[in-house]
Amino acid sequence: MALACNPELVVADEPTTALDVIVQYQILDLIRNLRDRLQISMILISHDLSVVAELCDKVAIMYAGKIVEFGDIFEIFEMPKHPYTRALLKSIPKMEGAKTRLAFISGSVPDLTGVVPACRFYERCPYAQKKCAEIEPETEQVDRTHSVACHFWRDIK
User: Fold this and answer.
1) Which of 95, 139, 144, 149 has the most CB atoms within 10 Å of its CB?
2) Cα-flanking dihedrals φ and ψ of residue 5, to 5°?
3) What is the DSSP string of 94-120?
4) Pairing state between β 58-63 and 41-45
5) CA nearest 126: which of 88, 84, 63?
6) Which residue pairs from 103-110 have beta carbons closer than 8 angstroms and sit at least 24 positions apart in sequence?
7) What is the model's pLDDT at position 93?
8) How far is Cα 38 from Cα 43, in angstroms, rounded to an integer?
9) 3-class SS shares of the chain: helix, strand, coil, % to 5
């Protein structure tokens, strides 16, 4: 039904949630084929980074309602700059190599009904400093296609 009026843009919100891996593959293949055949743009909203990697050219990483990093999918996955993006990518299970404990992000998401710290990731960030609790970070260009909102992204190795 969403395609009946020939839209230029389709928003797909968690299109593969709660599907088994076979049906998920079929849905991703259908979405990719429709996108290419109809030449439509698509915004995909997902918590599943493997789905994002499969379908997207660009990615916006959001934390607590704010975009903290944006860029080309390969650049973000290969050279993440924001501490939250780095933590997300470290939490993806690896199929090869030695077995290791799954990484996780300590702490809790901030309560967005009250006063939110200037950097919403401040209380969970291993690189946080006093400035992070006081001043919201500006979005800075890393390069022509990659941006990040973090005071100390240049200092993170």
Assistant:
1) 149
2) -95, 15
3) PSSSS--PPP---S----TTSPPPSST
4) unpaired
5) 84
6) 109/64, 110/64
7) 80
8) 15
9) 30, 20, 50
Cβ-Cβ contacts under 8 Å for 134 (sequence gap 6 or more): 118
The overall pTM is greater than 0.90: no
Rounded Cα–Cα distance for residues 111 and 90 (Å): 24
CATH superfamily of 1-56: P-loop containing nucleotide triphosphate hydrolases (3.40.50.300)
Query: Would the pLDDT of 154 be above 90?
Result: yes
3 state DSSP class of 10: strand
The identity of residue 156, as a single letter, is I
Report domain extents, the chain. Answer: 1-56, 80-157
- At 101-133, the pLDDT tens digits run 878 888 998 888 887 779 999 999 999 999 999
Show the tokens assigned to 78: 């290969």
Q: How many residues belong to the chain?
A: 157
Q: Work out whether the CA dihedral 51, 55, 57, 62 comes out positive or negative.
A: negative
Does residue 91 have a pLDDT over 90? no
